[in-house]
Amino acid sequence: MTYQKKIPNTLDCGAVLTKAVLHGKWKSTLLSLIAEGRRRPSELQRIIPGATRRVLNVQLAELEQHGLVHKIVFGQLPLKVEYHLTSLGQSILPVIAVMEQWGNAHRAELTQALAAASTRAAT
Questions:
Q1: Would you tell me how many other CB atoms lie within 10 Å of the CB of residue 32?
Q2: What is the pTM of this model?
Q3: Which of 92, 101, 40, 94 is nearest to 66 (CA)?
Q4: What is the pLDDT of residue 79?
Q5: CA 56, CA 49: separation in Å to the nearest integer?
Q6: CA distances from 2 to 5, 23 (A)
Q7: Do the Cβ atoms of 41 and 55 come closer than 8 Å?
Q8: Residues of the chain where predicted confidence (pLDDT) is lower than 50
Q9: First and final CA of the chain: distance in angstroms?
Q10: Domains defined along the chain, listed by start
């Protein structure tokens, strides 16, 4: 049996839509890296060593489903795959930049708050 939320998300709020599209530990990082020109899955894997290949593939597939990236498969052996941002993907880059600026500006207090929350959850 699969889990179903008791109260479904309403997608009539722009913030909820944005969070739904960016939900995933590596999605904003993937979008930023692809925008910088790093387009091959192996390149992305090297730059994000903390992410497994499977997780990156799942999140890239979701970004493709949401229309933020376009996957190109070259008909050659060995198989070559590249990801490119769509215009929709380009349009979310300023949002990611503002999120990064906010996180960097409040790093000390956020790090402290997250560490305290982690400690409380462990006890």
A1: 15
A2: 0.83
A3: 92
A4: 86
A5: 10
A6: 10, 20
A7: no
A8: none
A9: 30
A10: 14-122 (1.10.10.10)
Separation of alpha carbons 53 and 49, rounded Å: 9
Structure tokens given for 12: 């009539």
Task: Find the helix or strand (DSSP H, E) in which 73 lies.
Answer: strand 69-74
Decide if 17 contacts 75 (C-beta within 8 A).
no
Whether the bond into 78 is cis, omega within 30 of 0: yes
- The pLDDT tens digits of the residues spanning 44-60 come to 999 998 999 999 999 99
Q: Which amino acid, one-letter code, is at 17? A: L
pLDDT of 2: 67
Q: What percent of the chain has pLDDT over 70?
A: 94
The residue whose two tokens read 């997608």 is: 11
Integer Cα distance of 90 and 96 in angstroms: 10
Question: Which strand (E) or helix (H) includes residue 105?
Answer: helix 87-105
Please give the pLDDT value at position 77.
86
